[in-house]
Amino acid sequence: MGSIRLEKVSKHFGEHAVIPSIDLEINEGEFVVFVGPSGCGKSTLLRLIAGLEDVTSGRILIDGEDATDKPPAKRGLAMVFQSYALYPHMSVRNNIGFPLKMANVDKAEIDRKVEDAAKILNLTDYLERKPRALSGGQRQRVAIGRAIVRNPECFLFDEPLSNLDAALRVNMRLEITELHQQLDATSIYVTHDQVEAMTMADKIVVLRAGNIEQVGSPLELYHKPANLFVAGFIGSPK
Ligand code: ADP
Ligand code: MG
């Protein structure tokens, strides 16, 4: 479970065709990275898949089923935001359990699921702390915990590491790819960072002005870039 297919998906904001028309196939269990310069439509595409924005035209299929008109909560996906999206006044336990509380899950089950997620993320000793008493990496793990408790088939990450320092980013990249494997999930990871794309992805989708320039493995893109844009983008990491 966790395959996603986009068929001629477009998104217009007023006159502006941010996504003119995209076809894309994401297979079960893949770690797919959307990469491209700022403003090219990465977040918009992710939000369309999540159901946080409506498509202008086209279809989104999840596990072969038309999900185009399904609300976000019915899509079996969980979005991981940057760690600053945590609730500062709530403990780690309540931050992680929040989506379950909203879904009226009973308290004993929330506790059990939060504690399972905390174990996976090495947060067991920090459950009663407030986010401000955590390191940047721990906060990011709490943000991931909030996605894990919902047992999603697919994780959607939108530049989750962009407010962490460089050394921590390297660690968190590894943690996220390990977690992806451990949970047997499908993941879509948005970044403008070529190094993140090259080191994390099974499959990279290179976007430019709302169009797909190329889809391929890091090695394919590196050795056989479809055009100068891809070559320049992949070949010149920061
Ligand atoms: P990225 O994540 O790649 O930086 P975005 O998907 O955020 O790019 O934005 C792509 C384009 O869509 C930008 O030109 C942005 O200004 C525009 N855009 C995004 N969201 C909206 C919106 N809600 N209303 C109008 N324009 C938007
Ligand atoms: Mg963005």
Automatic annotation (TrEMBL):
Keywords: ATP-binding, Hydrolase, Nucleotide-binding, Transport. Its EC number is 3.6.3.19. It is a peripheral membrane protein. Residues 4-234 form the ABC transporter domain. The keyword Transport applies. Its main location: membrane. GO terms for molecular function: ABC-type maltose transporter activity; ATP binding; ATP hydrolysis activity. It comes from the Bacteria. It is found in: Cell inner membrane. One of its GO terms (cellular component) is maltose transport complex. Belongs to the ABC transporter superfamily. This is Maltose/maltodextrin import ATP-binding protein MalK. It comes from Martelella mediterranea DSM 17316. The chain holds residues 1 to 238 of 332 of the full protein.
